[in-house]
């Protein structure tokens, strides 16, 4: 490893210069005016990989091309094979006037490199590429085979990658996927994200009278659907913040003492968090911390309410109906489809005799978890510690990341999320940046990772 | 009285013919294309009054003219003076294709005269005019002075009458107002409406986060404003249908045994009523009947609910705010302004610590009641019985009738609502009609009324 770390040290500045070069491409997937820039950017990446010694290919798709960069694989090799996922497309840079320097003219100020895509995601997957370069250029044998899959449609939710995974299932068969496209709390807290929440959506509607009624002539003698809906919804979360649907928590995996201890290590300031969200006070399920609430516990969220008159002034009616859009965030090992059925059934039992209820089931996505105590997870934690010099934290992410689900479903493989974005990296916002110390340490982490993975 | 009833009998058909003539005017106040018809109709009415022997005047206003028809008043007369209110403007007749005969070509089918305005309100106030004619044409001395005030802006909520009342306060000083512009259940149940509900409006809004939040990243750690609003609203009506705002019922006049007995006499079929409103089941305050619920008890009605995303599909957010539009129907002797203050104060006490609450107070109208046991009320009941041959019922009306409030406020006088519309008269709908037996008996009722009033 000494040979490699020396190489990394010696080439630190060049790596930054190369990243700057990569960031100059305005590879905005959402804007068709940049279609040629997308192709140029993909080609640049492929050529860069080739120059390092990787087998590079730009794959045409129905949308933007996918770049693969692979170590030359020996036939019948018994070396493990890992995928590194990234995306070379970036968010639109607008509004331009809010940038302190042009989004595609990368500039270093202090420890940060400012440019659209610096952190999301060019800097992050480029770090892995530089680690591989160190192996190849120093003649150090990589203890595993690696394939980089870098897509150009992440920011537009394109389906090209899904088809690509399906079509290249055999070539992409691997022992694990590494994705650096999430976050870490700060330099002292490098992070492995090991779980994602799932989601289940539905809409519930109550119909009372068959039309809006005059509240003077009829009001008082019929139940108001908006009130009936309020009473219905109010029952679904108790005063301790618990969801009251029978069986809702049955399949929720208990957070282990280890997980909770790890979660407690994630820096958190309630004052700063409240300020960030603009709320007066926090509220969450009793017995859990805010970090657990937002990532490790299921939720029942009303996303929208509709009933009656919503314009200016007032309208004296008993509205004919009222409805609520609901999504639930689910945690391992809840089954999204089962939950949806349970909730729908429970809603029906709560429907008052005055109302006709309609429940429309929406989309589902199952939660994801990879055991943080598995051998590859432990190896990843080891690499993080070696590179950053601090004990890493284990994170759960409250949202869903579709790509992880695709890897699991199509390639039947676990994903390790080793995020290199800091909370202030301004992803999707003006003045996006990459912390260059995170970048440099990210390269070191990746260099360790392949050895640690292979030894695990 | 014999002389008068003979006259009415002898002229029954002519009265109908004259009403038909009156109904031919398309006096649609809402449609400016009919402005000339409005004037022609007002003039016809004035001339008709003059021919009977009344002092007639067409008063110009900023909008449509007001017609007054008055008995010749003797200076320093000690005869009582009553007003009769009506309106010669009608609702737009559209959609025309749903009429079985043209709206302004009156036709008799069976016992009904079909035309726009037949029941609302030309037929009703014209009945009073015919009664007065009987006194004047038979040389029977009217025991009171009468002034008809017939406006042309009732259907458009015009303010001309309010100004007119203010400007002619002295001339219009009187002992009571008679309005036939409400309903009666059927021919066997002539009715005096003696109370109207008031109204108080407000809007309550809860603000949680200062923007919609990603439900994956933050959901679970902050209270959802739509849920907080549901919980807030759900507390405001208990399972017995009682409004839980402290002090809300303090000023509600208890329904006397007499009133409840009278109310119970109003025909009511739960099956028909449910079918009429298209509801599965009725719901109302425990201990009261549906007729009491809708007319004699206060309500707390959500008129509209708004929060978050209401478009197609789903949006995984914690909405930043949620709001509800509310109107309350109030009953004697609740004070609308006081109720509004009480409710706003109570809402504030229910606001959870996670939310910022805004309460916006809206319009108010006080409830109205005239004692059904007062001497003029009793006289009116006597007249109804004489004309219809059945014991009249006492009604409360669940809505507000602004004009009654104007008479009370400006002229400081009580209003007696002697409605001649049947439930199936199709007011504001195609195929509006007047039951000609009701019309004829209405004339008789009015003939009795002036004598009964004067004797009371």
Structural summary, described in words:
The structure is a homodimer of 456-residue chains. The longest helix of chain A is centred in the N-terminal third of the chain and has 20 residues, at 118-137. Chain A is elongated, with a radius of gyration of 25 Å. The first copy, chain A, starts with a helix and ends with a helix. Chain A has helices spanning 2-10, 12-23, 35-52, 118-137, 160-167, 225-234, 257-264, 270-277, 290-295, 336-350, 375-388, 402-411, 436-455, and strands at 55-59, 66-70, 81-87, 107-109, 112-114, 145-151, 176-179, 191-196, 198-207, 213-214, 301-308, 317-318, 321-330, 356-365, 368-369, 393-397, 415-417, 433-435. In chain A, strands 1-2-6-3-7-17 form a six-stranded mixed beta sheet, sandwiched between helices. A four-stranded antiparallel beta sheet of chain A has the order 11-13-9-14, with helices on one face. A three-stranded antiparallel beta sheet of chain A has the order 4-5-18. By secondary structure, chain A is an alpha+beta fold. The model of chain A has no long low-confidence stretch (mean pLDDT 95). Chain A is 35% helix and 21% strand. In chain A, a hairpin with a 2-residue loop joins strand 4 and strand 5 (112-114). The first copy, chain A, has two domains: 2-195 and 367-455, Zn peptidases (Aminopeptidase), CATH 3.40.630; 198-252 and 298-365, Alpha-Beta Plaits, CATH 3.30.70. At the A-B interface, strand 9, strand 10, helix 6, helix 9 and strand 11 of A face strand 9, strand 10, helix 5, helix 8 and strand 11 of B. Strand 11 of chain A pairs antiparallel with strand 11 of chain B, so a sheet runs across the interface.
């Amino acid at each position: 490893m000494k040979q490699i770390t020396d190489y990394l040290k010696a080439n630190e500045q060049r790596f930054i210069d190369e990243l700057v070069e990569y960031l100059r491409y305005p590879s905005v997937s959402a804007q068709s005016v940049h279609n040629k820039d997308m192709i140029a950017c993909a080609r640049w990446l492929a050529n860069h990989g080739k120059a390092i010694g990787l087998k590079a290919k730009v794959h045409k798709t129905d949308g933007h091309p996918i770049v693969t960069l692979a170590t030359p694989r020996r036939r019948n090799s018994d070396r493990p094979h890992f995928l590194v996922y990234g995306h070379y497309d970036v968010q639109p840079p607008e509004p331009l006037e809010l940038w302190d320097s042009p989004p595609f003219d990368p500039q270093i100020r202090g420890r940060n490199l400012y440019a659209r895509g610096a952190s999301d995601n060019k800097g992050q997957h480029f770090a892995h590429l530089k680690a591989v370069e160190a192996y190849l250029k120093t003649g150090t044998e990589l203890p595993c085979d690696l394939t980089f899959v870098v897509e150009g449609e992440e920011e537009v939710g394109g389906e090209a990658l899904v088809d690509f995974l399906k079509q290249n299932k055999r070539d992409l068969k691997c022992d694990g996927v590494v994705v650096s496209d999430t976050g870490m709390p700060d330099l002292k807290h490098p992070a492995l994200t090991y779980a994602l929440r799932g989601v289940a959506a539905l809409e519930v509607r109550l119909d009372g009278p068959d039309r809006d009624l005059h509240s003077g002539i009829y009001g008082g003698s019929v139940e108001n659907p908006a009130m009936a809906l309020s009473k219905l919804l109010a029952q679904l979360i108790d005063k301790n913040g618990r969801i009251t649907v029978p069986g809702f928590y049955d399949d929720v995996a208990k957070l282990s003492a280890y997980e909770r201890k790890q979660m407690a290590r994630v820096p958190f300031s309630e004052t700063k968090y409240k300020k960030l969200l603009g709320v007066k006070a926090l509220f969450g399920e009793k017995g859990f911390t805010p970090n657990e609430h937002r990532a490790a516990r299921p939720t029942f969220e009303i996303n929208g309410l509709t009933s009656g008159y919503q314009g200016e002034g007032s309208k004296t009616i008993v509205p004919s109906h009222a409805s609520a859009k609901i999504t639930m965030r689910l945690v391992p090992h809840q089954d999204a489809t089962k939950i949806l059925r349970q909730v729908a059934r429970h809603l029906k039992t709560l429907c008052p005799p005055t109302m006709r209820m309609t429940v429309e089931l929406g989309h589902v996505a199952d939660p994801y978890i990879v055991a943080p105590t598995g051998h590859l997870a432990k190896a990843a934690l080891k690499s993080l510690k070696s590179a950053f010099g601090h004990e890493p934290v284990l994170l759960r992410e409250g949202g869903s990341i579709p790509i992880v689900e695709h890897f699991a479903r199509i390639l039947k493989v676990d994903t390790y999320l080793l995020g290199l974005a800091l909370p202030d990296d301004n992803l999707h916002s003006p003045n996006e940046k990459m912390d260059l110390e995170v970048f440099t340490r990210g390269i070191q982490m990746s260099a360790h990772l392949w050895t640690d993975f292979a030894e695990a």
